[in-house]
Design goal:
Elements (H helix, E strand, L loop, with lengths): L1 H28 L4 H13 L2 H26 L21 H4 L1 H22 L6 H17 L10 H9 L3 H16 L21 E6 L3 E6 L5 E10 L17 H7 L2 E8 L11 H20 L4 E6 L1 H16 L7 E7 L17 H14 L1 E2 L1 H9 L3 H14 L8 H7 L4 E2 H13 L10 E2 L2 E2 L9 E6 L7 H4 L2 H4 L4 E6 L18 E6 L6 H7 L1 E4 L3 H8 L6 E3 L12 E2 L9
Parallel strand pairs: 3-4, 3-5, 5-6, 6-11, 11-12
Antiparallel strand pairs: 1-2, 1-16, 2-4, 3-15, 7-8, 9-10, 12-13, 13-14
Helix pairs in contact: 2-6, 3-5, 5-6, 8-14, 10-11, 12-16
Length: 578
């Protein structure tokens, strides 16, 4: 009995060691689980031969129809395409892709194959929705990379332009490629036309406070009288703050000043290796809490109106829950809260969840341990991979193959002006918020000495989401209304994560929005049915909500003081750090 038991124990130990070694090898060679998800998908289909045969028959029928279509085209006859690109797919809009029979057939063959594979992946039997999305995401990126539009000899537009320019387009494209290679990224905008502090982020103001985490900018009032309760903006720490102060016509900061609001903004430091151990707790206590304190003391007011954007909004929500205990028995430093494109419930955060699993986060932790931070270029490329055709390959084709000069677009320049994230803070944030979704679980998180419960947030809330936001999907952003107990007004803007927020009033109106009160147990679909629809910018509606909560009009306070002297002119020094 002893020998077989010993053999069995040895076998189990060996199996477990082999499994452990396999997991380690997988984390090293395939940290994103691409190969594993592909194998699981193939096995799932092989376990359902009937459905697989049916799908193959559908593909064979499409290819047969394409053969007939090709025969008609070669005989000079026209007809509807067998497979058309999706409305948002602009890769094949140039007439060469339809006028030439060969390129027309190549285009449709590619579309048939890619659409069929993608449909199969989303219909994989016996797999979870997340597993389907993960496999489809990585496969879609590979298929998009292999598009005939991405290669010179299979792109008729690139060849035509080369002939028409006597090869100049090839020369310019090669120069564009070399410049991109030098920068380590595919540029989306020209960089020569912009400089922060000269034609971006130019609203006058002073840095009135600085520590190791941030600079606080107090802007110079432009109105004769201002509302006494100041506005303090918490921008995302994964980007630089001047997205809210681009050109004067697009600047939310200037708009607030024109509306008579005393305005402050946090400019986060771009952390290096020396900030590797900076924690989320420090961002709350030494960041938000300090900023609110300085603004209150400088304005001589007991409260501020706080605004949080993206992860800045998640940090603000966490701070509000924390402050309900930290300042219990006294006046809370924040009178009202506004959230821009903010997630607090990460149960279904959109396409970004393909990067969120234990193996990927373990790999990311290892990478950050080497440098002390997550490089901004890595983060930016992750977000660009969510929309690869429009955010990557479009610039490869126009820059490298067509040899076009990059246009100067302020939002895209800002998008390329990346920032880093300290290792400790970023790892905690990804695991506690994205992976475990602990922010919505009462008392599941202990932050800076207090258990966090979002139900303790009773301040009135104004929340804005965007229809086409792929970073903070609007229906998931809406779930913030289910968790907070105060009065809530919700806005759904057209456009996406940036232009849905950077949405100034213009004539004629470019965008529209839905707005209405949000009930705690209301579904996003039901809310939208009852919401009011307006053309134009939601900024004006926000002012109607915010001004009554901002106190009486009075003489503007000094931009700086003896206690908080001006340390530098806006936009400060931190935003200029590479």
């Amino acid at each position: 009995m002893t020998k077989p038991a010993a053999q069995q124990s040895w076998f189990i130990d060996s199996f477990e060691n082999a499994q452990h070694f396999g997991n380690m090898l997988e984390n090293i060679c395939d940290p994103f689980g691409i190969g594993k998800s592909a194998i699981h998908t193939q096995l799932a289909w092989l376990c359902h031969p009937g459905k697989l045969a049916e799908s193959n028959v559908q593909l064979a029928q499409k290819l047969f129809d394409l053969q007939q279509y090709a025969a008609r085209r070669y005989w000079g006859m026209q007809g509807p395409d067998v497979e058309e690109a999706h409305p948002e797919d602009t890769r094949f809009v140039e007439p060469e892709w339809s006028d030439s029979v060969s390129f027309d057939i190549a285009k449709q063959w590619y579309l048939i194959l890619t659409h069929h594979i993608q449909d199969m992946l989303y219909e994989t039997p016996g797999q979870s929705v997340q597993a389907k999305r993960q496999t489809a995401f990585w496969c879609r990126n590979w298929l998009n990379a292999l598009s005939p539009s991405n290669f010179f000899w299979t792109n008729p537009v690139a060849m035509r332009r080369a002939v028409e320019s006597n090869g100049e387009s090839i020369k310019r494209g090669w120069q564009n490629f070399l410049e991109d290679a030098k920068l380590g990224t595919v540029r989306m905008s020209s960089t020569e036309e912009f400089k922060v502090g000269e034609n971006l982020g130019t609203t006058p103001g002073k840095v009135v406070f600085r520590n190791e985490l941030f600079e606080l900018i107090h802007y110079t009032p432009t109105a004769k009288a201002v509302h006494q309760v100041p506005v303090v903006i918490v921008p995302p720490c994964i980007n630089k703050f001047y997205v809210l102060d681009l050109t004067p016509k697009k600047s939310l900061i200037r708009y607030l000043l024109e509306q008579g609001l005393d305005t402050y903004i946090i400019s986060w430091r771009n952390p290096g290796a020396e900030q590797a151990g900076t924690t989320f707790d420090q961002y709350l206590q030494e960041g938000l809490d300090q900023a609110f304190r300085v603004a209150r003391e400088l304005s001589a007011q007991p409260q501020v109106n706080a605004v949080g954007y993206c992860i800045g909004g998640a940090m603000l929500a966490t701070w509000l829950a924390w402050s309900s205990q930290q300042y219990a028995g006294s006046v809370n430093p924040v009178a009202s809260a506004t959230f821009f494109a903010t997630l607090v419930d990460y149960h279904s955060p959109g396409d970004i969840e393909v990067f969120i699993d234990p193996a990927t986060l373990d790999w990311l932790d290892g990478k950050m341990a080497e440098t002390g931070y997550l490089d901004g270029k890595d983060m930016a490329m992750s977000f660009r991979m969510l929309r690869p055709n429009s955010l990557i390959w479009n610039y490869v084709v126009h820059g490298w193959l067509y040899g076009e000069k990059l246009s100067a677009f302020d939002v895209l320049y800002w998008n390329m002006d990346t920032t880093r994230m300290p290792a400790a803070m970023h790892s905690w944030y990804l695991r506690q918020f994205y992976l475990h979704n602990n922010l919505i679980k009462p008392n599941a998180l202990n932050v800076a000495g207090h258990d966090i419960n979002l139900e303790n947030i009773t301040q009135p809330v104004y929340a804005v989401a965007a229809v086409d936001d792929h970073i903070a999907p609007w229906k998931q952003s809406f779930r913030l209304n289910h968790l907070l107990t105060g009065d809530k007004r919700f806005v759904l803007s057209t456009s996406g994560h940036i232009l849905g927020i950077v949405n100034p009033p213009v004539s004629p109106p470019k965008r529209a929005f839905w707005v209405g009160q949000a009930e705690r147990h209301q579904s996003p679909e039901h809310w939208k049915q009852s919401a009011e629809h307006h053309t134009g910018s939601w900024w004006e509606d926000w002012m109607q909500w915010l001004k009554p909560q901002s106190g009486e009009l009075a003489k503007a306070p000094a931009v700086s003081s003896r206690q908080y002297p001006a340390l530098a002119d806006a936009p400060g020094s931190y935003v200029l750090e590479p």
